[in-house]
Amino acid sequence: MRVITTTAPGGPENLTVTQAPTPVPAPGEVLVAVRACGVNRADLLQRQGHYPPPPGASDVIGLEVSGTVAGFADDVAGWSVGEPCVALLAGGGYAEYVAVPAGQVMTPPPGMDLVTAGGLVEVAATVMSNMDAARLTSGETLLVHGGAGGIGTFAIQYGKAVGARVIVTAGTPDKRELCLHLGADTALDYHDDWVAQLKEATDGHGADVILDVMGASYLESNVVALAADGRLVIIGLQGGRKGTLDVNRLLNKRATVMATALRSRPLAQKAAICAEVQRRVWPLVGAGTIKPAPETRFAFADVADAHRRLESGENTGKVLLTLP
User: Fold this and answer.
1) Starting from the edge strand earliest in sequence, which strands make up the sheet with 207-212, in order?
2) Which of 31, 79, 174, 179 might form a disulfide with 70, Cβ 3.0–4.6 angstroms?
3) How many angstroms from the chain centroid is the CA of residue 161?
4) Do residues 137 and 163 touch, judged by C-beta distance below 8 A?
5) How confident is the model over 76-97, as pLDDT tens digits?
6) 165-184: per-residue pLDDT in tens?
7) Do 131 and 243 fall within a single domain?
């Protein structure tokens, strides 16, 4: 099969298409013939050498795919060869075939194009599981950083479906307009004093929940922006790994700071999350409550251009690699 490998840690030019043996599904696994693979920020970090796969996972980049079932182990039931599917991965997605634990293979959202579905799995699982961890409830205010990205565009719509007021940060007028079109109540320019703007928009209350992809560079500001009893959920490190935390401010607000990663969770946890995505999120997609984000598609061999697009900061929504 064709597979994309990294010749050395570094830039997109180090991504190359090579040949590798087609995987054979181990006990409990499904073999997926890949139709599309989502390109995520984590992929850029892995290419650069900053985000190695968990022990035992494929060292091939790629955390989500769509495709069709090409085979399965003898102990796997409920699937037939040729059925369309989507899958959440710990690695291995940039390939023509990938073997996936059966608990992480799902039917696609009803009525959705199979290529588009390849870019929905990871964001759906990430947003749903983190909003569960943060206990986001109807009537609360959710602040989403990077509102025009893959995570952000999904989080806006999921937050509204929960009944929250959604405020986002984004860097350009076009991106802020997209966020508002998707349902955000307020869109803030992160180049300005977005904390002051947030406080003004919420009459001084602040955000009950913050979904943050930036990490260190936003840590202090996020704590200031939290409401009393607020919850900050850090899911990305685009702004670095080490920041300063005012513990006294955190104490006075009775606030919580948590950081989560989906990729390294035990298989049983990921299977439970996937089951909840199918049960709770796919019906929202099928009903049109959550709509696909804008997407940019690249052919499999153009993976370097796909990475450059995501790194450029100009992208909105999802970037996808497609295979015939």
Assistant:
1) 186-189, 165-170, 141-145, 207-212, 226-234, 256-259
2) 31
3) 18
4) yes
5) 999 999 999 999 999 999 999 9
6) 999 999 999 999 999 999 99
7) yes
Q: Do 46 and 136 share a domain, yes or no? A: no
**What distance in Å separates the CA atoms of residue 64 and residue 164, rounded to the nearest whole number?**
27
Residue 9 tokens read as 């840690």
What would the pLDDT profile of 184-243 be if each residue is shown by its tens digit? 999 999 999 999 999 999 999 999 999 999 888 889 999 999 999 999 999 987 877 888
Quote the number of domains for the chain.
2
Q: How many helices (H) and strands (E) does the chain have?
A: 11, 15
Q: 149 and 251, same structural domain?
A: yes
Q: Which of 241, 313, 307, 320 is nearest to 43 (CA)?
A: 307
Q: Identify the domain boundary among 259, 293, 312.
A: 259
Q: Are residues 98 and 221 in the same domain?
A: no
Helices 267-276 and 121-134, packing angle to 10 deg: 100
From first CA to last CA, the distance across the chain in angstroms is: 13
Residues 245 and 309 in one domain: no
Average pLDDT over residues 105-119: 95
Its domain, for residue 200, covers 124-259
Shared domain for 195 and 210, answered yes or no, is yes
Sign of torsion over alpha carbons 285, 286, 287, 292: positive
Alpha helices in 38-172 (DSSP H): 41-48, 114-117, 121-134, 150-162
Instruction: Look up residue 294 and give its two tokens.
Output: 């804008």
Amino acid identity of residue 132, one-letter, is: D
pTM above 0.90, yes or no: yes
DSSP assignments along 291-318, one per residue: -PPPEEEEEGGGHHHHHHHHHTS---BE
Note whether 202 and 142 are within 8 A (CB).
no
